[in-house]
Amino acid sequence: MSKMSYAEESSGNVFADIGLQDAGAKFVKAQLAFYLSNHIKGLKLTQAAVGQILGLSQPDVSRLVNGRPTGFSTDRLIELLDNLGQDVDIAIRPRKLPTRVHVPEYEAAE
């Protein structure tokens, strides 16, 4: 016997999907931190060397590389990417509305 349950397709923003306030801002900051972390890792430099380039302490670079951008504003993350020779583009487009999909749920046979 199967039951029907529902799953919603993601909006593309996990922060909005779980109902957090300022979800758009949180998502933008997370994306910037992700790209910054990947770029820093790709430089193949020590965190101390990256810190000297960016004017940050090694612990701050470590936080960024490990996906913890607490204490960095969105503007600061953009500035850091710019200092590393990266262009940041902002795109504005209509929002996608989530759709509901039926997902069959099966009970385990006993």
Helix-strand blueprint:
Elements: E1 2-8, H1 14-17, H2 23-42, H3 47-54, H4 58-65, H5 74-83, E2 100-106
Antiparallel strand pairs: 1-2
Written description of the protein model:
By secondary structure, the chain is α+β, with helices and mostly antiparallel strands. 45% of the residues lie in helices and 13% in strands. The chain has 5 helices and 2 strands. The chain has a two-stranded antiparallel ribbon with strand order 1-2. It is elongated. The model has no long low-confidence stretch (mean pLDDT 86).
Brief synopsis:
The protein has helices at residues 14-17, 23-42, 47-54, 58-65, 74-83, and strands spanning 2-8, 100-106. The protein is an alpha+beta fold and 110 residues long.
H/E element string? EHHHHHE
The end-to-end span amounts to 12 Å
Helix content: 40-55%
* Main sheet attributes: strand count, strand direction, barrel closure: 2 strands, antiparallel
- SS strand fraction: 5-15%
- Averaged pLDDT, please? 86
- Total strands: 2
Low-confidence stretches: none
- What Rg do the Cα atoms give? 20 Å
Instruction: Quickly count the helices.
Output: 5
Q: What is the overall shape?
A: elongated
Descriptive terms for the model:
5 helices, two-stranded antiparallel sheet, 110 residues, single chain, 2 strands, alpha+beta
